[in-house]
Amino acid sequence: MSTHTAEPPAEAPAPPRRRRFGLGDRVFSGLALLAGITIMVALAAVFVFLAVRGSAGLHADSSLYPAAGNFVAYAAKLLFGTVWAAVVAMVFAVPFSIGLALFVSHYAPRWLATPVAYVIDLLAAVPSVIFGLWGLRTLANAMKPVEGWLNAHLGFIPLFSDPLSTSGRSVLVAGLVLAVMIIPITTAICREVFAQTPRLNEEAALALGATRWEMIRYAVFPYARSGVIAGVMLGLGRALGETMAVTFVLGAEDPLVTVKLLTSPSPPTIASNIAQRFQGENTGQQVVLLATGLVLFVFTFAVNFIARWVVARQERKLA
Amino acid sequence: MTTQGYGTIEPELDELSISSFSHVRLPRFAPLLVLLGALALSGLLALLLGWGPVAIPVVAVILTIIALPLWSAVVENRRAAVDRLVTCLVWTALAITLVPLVWVLEKTIAEGIPAISWHFLTNDMRQGLDPVTFKMVAGGGLKHALLGTLLVTLGAVVISVPIGLMTAIYLVEYARGSWIGRTITILVDVMTGIPSIVAGLFAVALFSTITGNPGIRFGLMGSIALSLLMIPTVVRGAEEMMRLVPSDLREAAYALGVPKWRTILKVVLPTAFGGIVTGVVLAISRVVGETAPLLVAVGTVDYVNGNLFSGRMMTLPVYIMQEYNGTVDDRKFAWGAALILIAIVMILNLVARIIGKIFAPQTGR
């Protein structure tokens, strides 16, 4: 049914590969292209619809911007909370991710490497709401003595200064939960780049008498640097947008700017702020939150885009 | 030199390097020995000073990290000591990362098992009159949430699998390095990083603009939000699998005069079938636990709603959140639902791996 050859000569500009085939082929390739274009349209639609609905939130009544008079200050404060929690998470996650990736790619005995990689993937499979449940009471309770110790011994540093959170729920705990959630992502990327180091470079280093660490330091790390940076940025993108864990641990607060890690009213993130306040039918509130959602979208889009660009550049360099 | 030659020389080289070429080295069992010693010492200290059970492994690990490089520095040299220090740190990183995983699983199972019962699985949370006490009580079940999750996820699969699969076909078979193909690849990559709550907000913004009702919520909105998160995973999985299909197979089909679209449907897709299904199942397991988009776009109810196209629905992750924010008694429902959700996700992961194993070695010989 698809082998009609009576095509009008107008088909000439089509590539020669396709000319011999008929209607079915054109329909099928058209559908495939359509699906691809749907993705482009969907991404554009996310931006457009958030902008259309959220634009009213830029100049709403000032009572809708708690702890800030206008949208810019409100969004800036929330963005601070978002970035701050993500940065705390990265401080914990990055060293562990690199260590884990090295373990799987260079340190583990072969029989151990695959199961370990699988277990790390399992960590990524645990739903975020369950990490939230765990972080809210279990981890927060367990961290109380640690927070007390930090405050007592390092309290002179502003990060650990008073007042202490009575429930243990603090940015520190939120950052820890976030770190657990992004470790699998960052580890996966780092693992891939570490494993791509040319075998000959590694063997050359070993043949010169380098220990395993020196081989990694002088052969693997220089080679993998931009890949690691990209992995870290992808993890950062995930940490910025992660909602439930932070919502659970930090609760509903008005936006605020503080670098204190252990206090109880802690700066909420854009995502946790939306999750806490969106359920009402209040239209004014809804458009303000949509506008902050747009800010989050653009910000994470930029972070991810830069990360992908770094990866792509690295791949070109190696090709 | 033949391979046989290598085989005979190797042990000699090994011996040489240990005995005369290099410096003195610690015995092979040194790390294990130090770890056992550290465990014994910290156990002893714990007994004497009355520490809790958590302190024993922590102190043991710290002792090992200090002792092994020190020993190495004395017997071997400074470089070897640094090497051993890093090895210790890498193993420690692994051990510490396993702690939260085991802890979360243990907590969920311990708290969840008492909550699960036949009553829990077959009731919703609607208020009803208790026939014995004549008080209004909640139903105490999650049937509505299970059904909601099933329907919303099904909707997301129906939307995202055709789009994702056709996009992958376009990228592998038709794009050939065109700018559209490159743009789609980048956008799919970027899409993996969309915050899940933004996907939910998008669904709300879309439908409230279309209908003019800012309070509108129904199941399909959640499906659309979830499919936004699912599509990139499906595309990447399918694309990777289809690229593995050897071009010999395609060329054989072309040589027989089969049109390209039939080649794709009858040769490429069946060959890559197992991998594609694995990717789809993994994508499902990723979105089935998503909370934020469903909270925003589907809302919450206490009763069974089987209609995707109208009215709010309850879903499992949102149910967990709502029950946990309720009274202390409600918390056990949250943990029970959490256990069921984690079981669903783990089973999906396992199924994906098994399918991948069964269908994997189909390419080449």
From TrEMBL, chain A:
PROSITE patterns to which the protein is assigned, alphabetical: ABC_TM1 (PS50928)
Pfam families per UniProt: BPD_transp_1
Highest taxon above the source species: Bacteria
Membrane listed as a keyword: yes
Subcellular location: Cell membrane
Transmembrane segments: 27-51, 71-104, 116-136, 171-194, 215-236, 287-311
Membrane topology: Multi-pass membrane protein
InterPro entries: MetI-like, MetI-like_sf, Phosphate_PstC, Phosphate_Transport_Permease
UniProt keyword list: Cell membrane, Membrane, Phosphate transport, Transmembrane, Transmembrane helix, Transport
Gene3D superfamilies the UniProt entry points to: MetI-like
Domain ABC transmembrane type-1: 79-307
Predominant localisation class: membrane
Family to which this protein belongs: Belongs to the binding-protein-dependent transport system permease family. CysTW subfamily.
Function: Part of the binding-protein-dependent transport system for phosphate; probably responsible for the translocation of the substrate across the membrane.
Protein name in the entry: Phosphate transport system permease protein
Organism, scientific name: Nocardioides eburneus
TrEMBL record, chain B:
Keywords for the protein's UniProt record, in alphabetical order: Cell membrane, Membrane, Phosphate transport, Transmembrane, Transmembrane helix, Transport
Family classification: Belongs to the binding-protein-dependent transport system permease family. CysTW subfamily.
Membrane disposition: Multi-pass membrane protein
Name this polypeptide is given: Phosphate transport system permease protein PstA
Main location: membrane
Xref: InterPro entries: MetI-like, MetI-like_sf, Phosphate_PstA, Phosphate_transprt_permease
Organism (species): Nocardioides eburneus
Subcellular location as annotated: Cell membrane
Annotated TM spans: 29-48, 54-73, 85-105, 145-172, 184-210, 216-235, 267-288, 333-355
Stored Gene3D superfamilies: MetI-like
Pfam families, per the entry: BPD_transp_1
NCBIfam families with a match to the protein in the record: 3a0107s02c
Function: Part of the binding-protein-dependent transport system for phosphate; probably responsible for the translocation of the substrate across the membrane.
Record domain ABC transmembrane type-1: where: 146-352
